[in-house]
Design brief:
The chain has about 800 residues and is of the alpha+beta class. It has 23 helices and 25 strands.
Length: about 800
């Protein structure tokens, strides 16, 4: 017979054999479906984030241009840097710069006012990302210049949603931020960008700018004939060109340079390691499932020894028998894989819906978790490999049989003791070791979960409502205008029943912000031309009371700290300890940002207060030095610059659930601002939750995997001991007939089972001590070798193993000696 004929015959026989053993088949398929489903779920996320190409033409040639420093690299750039980068035409077809988040753009004058997501982008943006237009065109480099025309490109979603797909939208005037803009283009519906945008406005970068504020992201399209290494070399040459043009070390440090990194790598960031660790963890779950099914097949092969011996006696060779048995195991795996594909796809959808972690390239960034050819291919491959993996040992074991001995022995006397089941014992030990590794990993993340929630963030997030208000446009270009808006808005909001206090700030904790260098008058510079650098926040006087940030010494701001008053600054404890380690910082004077651009030319500020530390970078990050300046005392040029790149934040403390009075607050702010809308309305607790979403996602997944692993390991050791008891019924009967008590029989069975569990635990502890080091970046507040975690996991696994072995041990102790001696 041909191979295909044998294969068809084997498949038919396998179907018949599995159909005759529905309990065995269902158990094996369920275990495999869990293991393969979990792997499919994680791989679908890995595929969407790490493997799937960017949805842009020439995605493999897209790079992000960066500043490099000895401690790492930064994606934010200044306009002068962008001007130098876009001159590197020998390496790049096009270079673009754009806001990294966008200020939010107010659309007014056409129905209800709406805050849209808008970014300022250079004309090269549409060339770099290959943005096709459904209607009209993109604005050109000749139009993207200082004092150029007010033009706008809108997204297809905005065109269809807000404007009903008006075919005459090109040439229409929109009121954006109080200014009239002419629509010149509409993008195709398939275009999704990062950051997500509703519209694009010209960047209007000044080619002669010397302003060193870093607030832009820059991307480029490498020429087809240029490699990444050559592009990186061109960027290093550009760094020397920049240094010659701007020799002041405040513009570029002596160890600073430029580089280019693949855009895909830049978007993924540090998520790669966490996802790969999860993929490795879920691989352990699959191995445990394989071990379980292999144990089932070994037990079943023992029962089929006579059948296999008869087939061999009738002329079937060992290879033919192995092929038949592997066909059965692969068939099981394929069915389990089909169910696992469904379980994995639905599972990851449910998980992302229940825990909407902001993974790069998923959700608002345009990609989605989908069953594409990579996921399908992965599932098929893993199903086949899994079938071979768990089926090979039983097949080899079953095919190697003594025909004469097997045909003479009774069906229930074959292979009963642990010594005769070394393969099954090894599989159980492996299951226990892998389960312990997963349990340790999950326990470390659970402790991280608890530790993060036990961290004092430095402020009280309870009953705080936050919302964005975009001040871009020509109505709020001066500090006095923003100060008047804040005072009017605060007075109106505080009249709403249930509002305790309100404030305005440039940014929120956990969501980044601005940083500026500074000099302390009377101290020599320590970091190049500056004393140091720190976070820089513009706030109104009520900010500290709204967040309940304690004033350690000195005072907070008040309404007398106006634009006409003397310049003041409040610093946090971290800054005071780092830069005034032996002296009191109160009364000292500092100069902030001088030398990085004309907008930051201001006189000294006096330190009037020191406040408690706030973990601005996240609960898992220590507080860094931070400077707070009154919004009313910010230079008009800085106000105009900030309003063009980021919205202002309203922060309102309430005496009740904040969303219950959200509409009233929004109404008062809209009236106070002359009709400006607010957007991104959230509670501060939601902001906190968003900052922890990635950690929670990892914890949830690994905990689920560990629970499945623990269940499968318990089933594995239970199955082995139950089968052992069944096979040793006669031996146990003889022992009891010779005087062994039920307690001694229970102890014998439990001891044998716990010996295997103990060996697995010892091996697992050793492996976990090494593997958990890979989780160092994922945990907080606990060591990777934390003794309490290891002890707790060992105790849990031992208790579960004891329960799993006690059930068959109890059954063994109830054997009737007279019945067992006749048992055949």
């Amino acid at each position: 017979m041909k191979f295909t004929d044998h294969l068809i015959a084997d498949v038919k026989h396998a179907v018949r054999m599995l159909w005759r053993s529905p309990g065995f088949a269902a158990t094996a398929i369920a275990a495999l479906a869990l293991g393969i489903g979990a792997n499919t779920a994680i791989f679908s996320v890995v595929n969407a984030v790490l493997l799937a190409p960017l949805a842009y033409p020439h995605a493999d040639r897209l790079v992000q241009l960066r500043n490099t420093f000895p401690q790492g690299s930064s994606p934010v750039a200044s306009i002068p840097e962008f001007n130098v980068w876009r001159q590197q035409t020998q390496a790049f077809n096009a270079v673009a710069a754009y806001d990294f988040s966008g200020p939010g753009i107010n659309l007014t004058g056409n129905g209800l006012p709406e805050q849209l997501k808008g970014i300022h982008a250079s004309a090269g943006y549409f060339d770099v990302f290959g943005v096709p237009m459904a209607l009209g065109r993109a604005y050109t480099a000749q139009e993207d210049v200082p004092n150029g025309p007010n033009l706008v490109v809108i997204s297809n979603a905005l065109w269809r949603g807000r404007f009903g797909g008006d075919p005459k939208i090109i040439g229409r005037t929109l009121e954006l931020g109080g200014d009239a803009y002419t629509v010149v283009g509409v993008t195709v519906p398939s275009f999704h960008n990062d950051p997500q945008s509703d519209l694009w406005l010209p960047l209007r970068a000044d080619p002669n700018s010397a302003e060193q504020g870093h607030y832009l992201i820059s991307a480029a399209l490498i020429r087809p004939s240029v490699t990444l290494v050559q592009a990186q070399a061109a960027m290093k040459l550009a760094a020397e060109q920049f240094r010659r043009r701007f020799p002041d070390p405040r513009a570029m440090g002596p160890k600073q340079s430029f580089t280019a990194v693949p855009l895909k790598d830049a978007l993924i960031g540090n998520v790669r390691k966490g996802l790969l660790l999860l993929l490795g963890a879920v691989g352990f779950v699959l191995l445990i499932a394989c071990a379980n099914v292999a144990n089932l097949l070994l037990a079943r092969a023992t029962l089929r020894r006579r059948e296999i011996a008869l087939r061999a006696a009738l002329g079937a060779g060992r290879r033919r028998i192995i092929q038949q048995l592997l066909t059965e195991s692969i068939l099981l795996s394929v069915v389990g894989g089909a169910l696992g594909l469904i379980i994995g796809y639905l599972g990851v959808k449910a998980l992302l819906a229940a825990n909407p972690v902001r993974l790069p390239r998923i959700g608002e960034h345009g990609a989605s978790v989908a069953l594409d050819w990579r996921v399908l291919g992965f599932t098929v491959l893993i199903a086949v490999v899994t079938g071979i993996l768990f089926g090979l040992i039983p097949a080899l074991n079953a095919s190697h049989t003594d025909l004469s001995a097997t045909l003479k022995e009774s069906g229930m006397r074959s292979g009963g003791s642990l010594k005769q089941n070394k393969a099954r014992s090894i599989l159980v030990v492996t299951e226990m070791a892998l389960a312990l590794i997963l349990l340790v990993g999950a326990a470390l993340l659970i402790r991280t979960f608890a530790a993060l929630r036990g961290v004092n963030p430095g402020f009280d997030a309870h009953n705080i409502l936050t919302m964005n208000m975009s001040l871009s446009g020509g109505n709020f270009t001066k500090a006095a205008e923003v100060e008047l808006l804040e005072r009017n808005g605060r007075r109106r909001v505080e009249t709403v029943p249930g509002v305790e206090a309100a404030a305005m700030a440039c940014c929120l904790p956990y969501e980044g912000g601005f940083g500026l260098p500074f000099n302390i008058i009377g101290q020599p510079p320590k970091n190049g031309p500056f004393t140091g650098g720190a976070g820089w926040m513009t706030i109104t006087p009520e900010y500290f009371s709204v967040f309940r940030i304690p004033v350690i010494s000195g005072r907070a701001f008040n309404d007398q700290d106006s634009g006409a008053a003397g310049r003041v600054v409040v610093i946090n404890e971290a800054m005071a300890k780092q830069f005034w380690p032996k002296h009191d910082a109160l009364g000292s004077q500092i100069v902030i940002g001088k030398g990085i651009g004309p907008e930051f030319q201001e006189g000294p500020r006096q330190v009037v207060g020191i406040v408690g530390d706030v973990r601005q970078g996240g609960l898992d990050q220590p507080a860094f030095p931070t400077m707070y300046v009154p919004l009313a005392q910010v230079n008009d040029a800085v106000i105009a610059l900030n309003n063009g790149i980021a919205p202002m934040m309203w922060i309102i403390r309430t005496r009740m659930q904040p969303f219950s009075i959200s509409k009233e607050i929004q109404h008062e702010l809209r009236d106070a601002s002359g009709g400006l809308p607010v957007g991104n309305v959230r509670s501060m607790e939601q902001v906190t939750g968003d900052s922890l979403a990635q950690s929670d996602f990892n914890t949830t997944l690994l905990t689920i995997f560990a629970a499945v692993a623990l269940l499968l390991a318990a089933i594995g050791i239970y199955g082995l001991m139950a089968y052992s008891v069944q096979q040793r019924t006669q031996e146990i009967g003889i022992r009891m007939a010779l005087g062994a008590s039920p307690g001694q029989v229970r102890g014998m069975v439990v001891g044998q089972g716990m010996l295997l569990a103990g060996i697995g635990v010892v091996i697992g502890v050793g492996a976990a001590l090494g593997l958990t080091r890979l989780m160092k970046q994922m945990i907080f507040g606990v060591k990777t070798w934390d003794p309490a975690t290891f002890v707790a996991v060992v105790v849990v696994l031992s208790v579960v193993s004891l329960i799993a072995t006690y059930v068959p041990a109890r059954r063994a102790s109830r054997v009737d000696p007279m019945v067992s001696l006749r048992y055949e």
